[in-house]
Each structure stands twice: as structure tokens, then as C-alpha cells.
Amino acid sequence: MQNDQWSSKVGFILASAGSAIGLGAIWKLPYITGTSGGGAFIFLFLLFSLFIGFPLLLAEFVIGRSTGKEAISAYKEIAPKTKWHWIGYLGVITAVILLSFYSVIGGWVIQYLFYGITGLTAEGTSGYEGLFNQSVSSPIASVAAQGLFLFITIAVVAKGIQQGIEKVSKIMMPALFILFIILIIRSLTLDNAMEGVKFFLQPDFSKITSESVLYALGQSFFSLSVGISVMVTYSSYLAKKESLMQPAISVVIMNLFISILAGLAIFPAVFSLGYQPEAGPGLLFIVLPAVFDQIIFGKVFLFLFLALFLFATLTSAFSMLEIVVASVTKGKSNGRALISWIVGIGIFALGVPSALSYSVLSDITIFGKSIFDSADFLVSNILMPFGALLISIFVSYKMKKDLLKSELIMDSKSLNGVFTVWYFLMRYIVPLVIIAVFLDSSGLLKLFK
Hints:
By secondary structure, the protein is mainly α. The protein has a single domain, classed as Orthogonal Bundle (Hydantoin permease), CATH 1.10.4160. 74% of the residues lie in helices and 1% in strands. The chain contains 18 helices and 2 strands. The protein has helices at residues 9-20, 23-35, 39-67, 71-78, 86-118, 124-136, 139-158, 161-188, 193-201, 210-223, 230-235, 245-272, 287-292, 298-329, 336-355, 371-398, 401-409, 416-441, and strands at residues 365-366, 369-370. A two-stranded antiparallel sheet has the order 1-2. A hairpin with a 2-residue loop joins β1 (365-366) and β2. α5 packs across α15 (336-355), α9 crosses α12 (245-272) and α14 crosses α15. It is a multi-pass membrane protein.
């Protein structure tokens, strides 16, 4: 068993929610919604989060809590003398690559927070586009900001579960909700704000295409932080007496809630000031600063938004670093701090090329993509779907059904029906859906279109 555990179920829920709520909910979901049909896309995203993401989240919880060990050791204990523990290694490798370029985006957020403090501004979307390009094309600034983001991440993880990740998550997650509520109130009081709400929440299924359906599947899948065994490691620190069902439901609800809050904070302001919701990835760093620039106390609200975005990005980064550190320390407290710094510095070095891919290394491409985009594609479109597929097969075909049942329902007969549905989804539906998402994101389905 681990030496370190969550001090409470609340701490576990907030840390797990923090892992899930990050770039996917706040940065990626709004711009994908803007380019994929608005409310109809949100409806599909909610549907798939409940019937695909939720079962996978529970599956990772079961693996970790049943063994009380980090990812690699957990698979070894359940299936000894087999190759299934390579799912754990795959998760560790994926987390390393993911954090290496994720920290670059975290660095961009830190740069923009610095702009907010120093009062640096631009005019209109074209001005902020120039500011963004200037920010990412500065090699010194990009690497320094990436390093600062990782420094904060390492410092927290090095403190351990209770004194590090849990303690910070208990502060950051409530702050995230509070800041969002403030921003939403301001956004909804703007002229023409209801047009943005209508676009975001009112479904128009005529705009749905096969591609947007698959995007919704992929978004629900990635937004819950499943597929790289992060939740296996997190749940291994949970006491045996605690229910798994309630934390899983709480994490899913919090993630969906934050996703909705992000849209309600962004789209009313975008529509109010006449910008296009289809702005793409630049919505956060280019359009939003221009939007907030035109409203009363806009600089204050932009700073608050970037602060909560940094909170969400950091809590996700904690989980990525934790799975790597835990795999080395085997969950023991001895040597955690040193290992955290060694691993973190290694990830920083690995991420430097991604940080420089918009400046001195911009001419280097891999299959036509920049270093940053190649790392993103490898993780998002190949490693995470493949890892989740293996986890779904492992849980439903390799683990004993009686063990799964005892871990999930804990002698609660009222949950028998829930277990039956979950087991059916994991055994038959989830693997097929993941295969569909994997093939499409890899571009293979296009060969048959």
C-alpha cells in the first residue's frame, strides 16, 4: 500500500476534478463548439461524457483503488506475468509528452498575466493577434514562461499528496468556480448577450455533421482526463472504505459544469461585441482580450479569467507529473521531492523544442506539422485513445467481474442495476466508440469516405 493518501474524499474529488478540468474544458471546448454547431455540439458532448467518459473514469478508479498502487504496479498485481502492465508504461510516456507541450501553453497564460499586471495592451483582434504572435515567437520569453509554469508544478507535487496536490486543489478549485461566476455575471449583462447564450445552448441539429459527432466523442473522452491512467494513480491514494461511485459522479458533474460555465462566460461577450464564435484556437488569447478591452473594467475581468485559466491548467499539470513521480517512487514518500525535481527538469528539457517551435525551430516540421503540433497530435490522436481502448478491454475482459462489482457497489444492492449497465457499456459500447474516435482522429476513416 501507499505511504501517502488523500486526507478526505472531498480532497480526492477536488484533485480529480482539477486533473480533468483544464485546457479541454476552458480552452478547447469553447472554440470547438464555435466551429461545430454550437448547442447541438454541446448536447452531444454532454451525452457522450455521461455514457463514454464516465464509465472509463470509473474503470480507472477501480483499477487504482482495488490495488492501492500506482499505475504500472496496479496492472502488474491484477495481471501478473503478463504484458498488461505496459498500459501503465504507456500512460507514463503519454503524461511526459503531454506535460512537455502542455507546459508551453501554461507559459503563454503566465505571459498574458504578466501583460495584465504591467498594463501592456493592443487594439482590436488584429492588435492582439500581433501580440500573441510576438509572445510565442520570443524564444527567451517562451522558454522562461514554460520553466516558471513547471517550477510551480514541481514545487506542489514535491510536497506530496496531502500537503501538496490536495492542499492546493482545495484552494484552486473553489476559486475557479467563484471567478467563473463573477465573469458570467459580467458577460450576461452586456448588450445582445442572449444571442451568445442562444448559440451556445440552443441545439440546431441541421449543423451537425459526422465529423462534429466524432469531435464531440473525442472532446468528452479527453476532457475527463481518462486514457493515461492518471486516475488509476489518484484513486490508489483513496481509502478502501470510500465509495467510488460518488467521486466519479462528482468529477463528471463538476467537469460538465465548468465546461458550461466557460461557454457562458465567453460566448455572450463574443456575440455582444460582434466577433465571430468560429475564431478557433485563438479565441482565448486573441479574441477574448479584444472583447474584454471594450467593456468597463475589462482589464480586471480579463486578468481574473487568465488567473482561473492558470489555476485549471496547473491542477491538470499536477496529475500529469504525479503519475510519472509515483511510477518511480512506487507511491512511497521517501525521495519524492528529489524525484519530482529530476523528472520535472527532464520534462522541461523535453518541452523546450515545443516552446521554440514558433521561433528558432519554426522551420523544423514532422509530417508537415510543427514540433508543438506533432506532440499534440501524437498524444491527443494516438496515445490517449489507444490507452483508453486498452483500459476498457483490460477492465471488462481481464479483471474478475466479482472484484469489479465489490469495488463499485460496496454491498449496496441499490447499485446492482447501475453496475449491470456500466459493465455492459465497458464490455461492448465503449471499446467500439473509442475505436471509431481513434480511426477518425488518425485520419484513417477518411480513406473510406
